[in-house]
Amino acid sequence: MAEFSIDRFVDRYAERTAGMSASEVRALFAVASRPDVVSLAGGMPFVDALPAQALLDVSTEVIADARSQALQYGGGQGQLALRERLAMLMAEEDVAADPGDVVITTGAQQALDLLGKIFIDPGDTIAVEAPSYVGALTAFAAYQPRFLTLETDDDGMIVEDLERAIVRGERPTFVYTVPNFGNPAGVTMSRARREHLVSLCREAGIPIVEDNPYGLLRFEGEPLPCLRSLDPHNVIYLGTVSKTFSPGVRVGWVLADPSVIQRVVLAKEAADLCGSNFTMLLTERWFSDEARWRGALERLVAAYRSRRDAMLRAIEKHFPPTAAWTRPAGGFYVWVSLPEWFDTTAMLAAAVERRVAYVPGSAFYPDGRGRDRMRLAFCYPTEERILEGVARLGSLLEDEEELFRSLRGS
Amino acid sequence: MKIAVLAGGRTPERDVSLRSGQRMTTSLVELGHEAWIVDPGETSLVESLGERGPDLCWLALHGKEGEDGTVQRLLDLLDLRYTGTAPFGCEIAFDKVLAKDAMAHEGIPTPPWVVVEGWALRDLGAGAALGDVVARVGLPCVVKPSRSGSALGVGFVDRATDLPQALMAALSYSGAAVIEAKIEGREVAAALVGETLEPLPLVEIVPKSGVYDYAARYTAGATEYFCPARLEDEPAVLPTLPRVDLIIDDHDRPWVLEVNVSPGMTETSLVPMAAHARGMALKDLCDVILRSAAARL
């Protein structure tokens, strides 16, 4: 009796691939790509707002002035001229950076993977917010850690949760946080919590990984200090130009102490030798003209602000009173909490049938929670489409509540 | 022969369908045919078929539009031949509400079931009758959307209090849900191919998680398959249909769960596996299917 094996290498794969599986949600997103479906799911930046002629100009400059460099391999740390520009960008948020302490990565996503590679041994504990950025969870998960989840509220991570865990004897390898307009919740860590987190981690000797993709997309209010500026030696800072310029150039970076940077560079070289010289040059040129990049960023922020306003207005109007949601002061996302009996993963099929899509909440928890939550992105669709999509979702939520009431009547 | 392989579409099974379609196209080309993929999710089907004028359409579409008779009726209208089942059969097989009735009518053993319609819950107060559902089918039970594939929206219920949530999930995929007694036993699939609907060896399905859900179906290594199935005797009576999913209970009784008119043909699919156990390569299987489709008219 021969066993038929579909995948003849099935017994050979590393244990770390065990968590990588086909998903129902991904299958439903195939349907959500229909043009008549309003997708509130993807966090795609509004790149069409960037001026076409200016992009053409910088691309031409790169080829005209630096063709042989653009097409060649480069160093593992990334071009110095670009690192200098990135230091200038970080200064916008009062983060002091020596370009020598920066390594350029293929998006900040690669930085997450490289940090996992150099810090996490199987079974190590990593502290993350609940909910947390799904891309970080999957990047870290490949290194087989145990996740310690820290609850959040409208002021971001509840730092007391971490304090209690430390008192219990927990010593996470690092704490991962997106303090500004986090993905998926859209909330921002308060100043008091930032100060508390930084001093707590410094005393306990736990490094902080601060991921800050959305910091410059603030719609209102005063910026809060980055964790890195509160404690430069204990905070590993991740940045990206994906939201301020373009995700297509895949330029992110790590800012950390030289000892960490040295290991990140070695890990980066082992992973892909070096980033793309062409897109690094393009990015460096883009940020070399202050009026140009500031103007483009202002247009982006203005567009995202009015899209956020449209989404919040529509939610207010169409969602049932049992729903609660965050009111982000920047970034891309609104996070919706529903009564606990909701299952947003299963409901996605009905939503797509009604031509609207969102991301079910459970993706953002490493522990299977979040089935009663969903993430709505306002960054990509036009205001008109946002209004339409939220209205469709609102009527679905009401129908689901009615259905649940009729089932509970039994 | 010029063969248009219809695959993709805009259903949750799009990716699975494209994988099936890609494999079929490769095999058909190996057999010396001119074969190409037509994805109704990307181009207008009628226009695209009009342009290249295939002799035959190979149906690798899954889910609503591909399996419920819609595409088949359209191809009939266009006077194009296609593989697989005719529209009426598709319609019955794809809709579990109709399929269960049809099987019972023909005396095919199928687990006891109850149908719950979404609108009956909303407008007729059917929620008050949920207790009767449990009394009728017993626990544990399986809740399935009436019109969906790849186990999407399927839930297993051990306690009566979990039934409302499972129903909500199934009704998210379809207007009606079938609640069926869960038969304990070995899960097997029977494939029947060719003009004579010759049965291939049974495939036994052993998901590592215990549940043959979407992830178990499409993640390589998540499920163990045994072909031929590890049974004393193959059940004598098999219904003559394309791919039949069954449970063989502890008394060796077969219970038919459902019939798939457009079974998956991906690298983790059951029909190619069964053919392999018979010594048929994928392209041999393609050839048999093709001949039976060509012979039909």
Instruction: Give the strand order of the largest sheet of chain A, numbering strands 1, 2, ... along the chain.
Output: 2-9-8-7-6-3-4-5
| Estimated radius of gyration of chain A | 22 Å
Q: What quaternary form is this?
A: heterodimer
Question: Biggest interface in this structure?
Answer: A-B, 40 and 51 residues
Strand content of chain B: 15-25%
Pick out the low-confidence regions of chain A.
none
First-residue to last-residue Cα separation of chain A: 49 Å
Computed structural class of chain B: alpha+beta
Give structural notes:
Chain A has helices at about 25-30, 50-70, 80-90, 105-120, 135-140, 160-165, 190-205, 225-230, 260-270, 275-285, 290-320, 345-355, 385-410, and strands spanning about 40, 100-105, 125-130, 145-155, 155, 175, 210, 235-240, 250-255, 325, 335, 355, 360, 375. With about 400 residues, chain A is an alpha/beta fold. In chain A, strand 3 (about 125-130), helix 5 (about 135-140) and strand 4 form a beta-alpha-beta unit. The relative contact order of chain A is 0.16. By secondary structure, chain B is of the alpha+beta class. In chain B, strand 1 (about 1-5), helix 1 (about 15-30) and strand 2 (about 35-40) form a beta-alpha-beta unit. In chain B, helix 1 (about 15-30) packs across helix 12 and helix 5 (about 85-95) crosses helix 6. The longest helix of chain B has 17 residues, at about 15-30. Classes of the chains: A alpha/beta (about 400), B alpha+beta (about 300). The interface between A and B is large, with 40 and 51 residues.
